[in-house]
Amino acid sequence: MTEQFDTQKTRAAAWFRQLRDDIVAAFEELEDSHAQGPMSDAPVGRFEVSETKRTAEDGSDAGGGLMSVMRGGRVFEKVGVNVSTVYGTLGERAQAAMMARKGLPGMKDDPRFWASGISLVAHMQNPHAPAVHMNTRMFWTPHAWWFGGGSDLNPCIEYAEDTAHFHAQQQAHLDPHGADFYPRLKAWADEYFYIPHRKRARGVGGIFMDDHCTGDWEADFALTQDIGRAFLPAYVPLVEQRRVQDWNDADKDAQLVHRGLYAEYNLVYDRGTKFGLETGHDANAVLMSLPPLAKWV
Questions:
Q1: Does the active-site annotation cover 167?
Q2: Cβ atoms 119, 272 nearer than 8 A
């Protein structure tokens, strides 16, 4: 199972990198084209790109990636688009977590893993423009492989038409894979992005899947690609519409309070954050999803 997956791993990692490049270009174009409305006279934002490297306990190479972060743009207050490919052996705590979740036989005897994916979080200047999260990923061990990911919208000021557009694009990209995918992944997102201690969702939902493996790698990879392809047409039109709206202090206050929810969720519940920190990945890259400013009342 190890050698036969080398080609699939290479293809998946290349796809995540291409998706990263497309999104970075689209977001910089949003900065360039913001010609009217609040902050249109501010400096144009650009991504700062840095390599991330991961080192195994014995000092050997364990992978890495690219961290791309834009701060203080005229549309994006902070947005990170990270892509990484990491590998090595899972530590005891990560093994235990994997065994508890998936019950994989042989994990203790051969704890090797490989993981690649893209992770994105955008926090906006304009409170009317929604924050957003997206990620897709592939995970491999000698015992099993699977895909995961999705995207969800996190507005502090909700617009029903924005929510409808975001979900419609998700459904349009998922329906060709089977009519059951969109309702199932939507329900999964509603459950996954729920904040139990606040008794509320962190946003207006989207789609989410994890541990997805039908046994047909090509079909599962195609589904994962379309989850990624849905993102820009689902999100960019919302930003183009909302970035020109005026806002006041109350709107900004509502945004900062809502960001507190986002920070709580990512630090307490998010599985990707926990895995990244457990496996020794660059902490700045793992925590790039946190907002630049937040407020608790």
A1: no
A2: yes
Edge to edge, the sheet with strand 112-124 lists 48-55, 61-71, 76-89, 112-124, 131-141, 144-154, 205-212
What does the alpha-carbon distance between residue 107 and residue 8 come to, in Å, rounded to a whole number?
A: 21
CB 75 within 8 A of CB 129: yes
With CA atoms as reference, report the closest residue to 101 among 263, 275, 283: 275
pLDDT tens digit sequence for 96-150: 666 656 666 666 767 788 999 999 999 999 999 999 999 999 999 888 899 999 9
What's the pLDDT score for residue 131?
98
b/e string for 27-41 if b means 16 or more Cβ within 10 A? bbebbeebeebbeee
Q: What is the C-alpha to C-alpha distance for residues 287 and 126, in angstroms, rounded to an integer?
A: 22
Whether 36 and 21 have beta carbons less than 8 Å apart is answered as: no
Distance (Å, rounded) from C-alpha 292 to C-alpha 297? 17
239: Cβ contacts below 8 Å, ≥ 6 apart:
30, 75, 124, 129
For residues 253-274, give the mean pLDDT. 89
CB 126 within 8 A of CB 149: no
Q: Out of 133, 167, 258, 281, pick the active-site residue.
A: 133
CB atoms within 10 A of CB 296: 10
* 20, pLDDT greater than 70: yes
Considering the chain, what is the average pLDDT of its residues? Answer: 91
The pLDDT, as a whole number, for residue 175 is 98
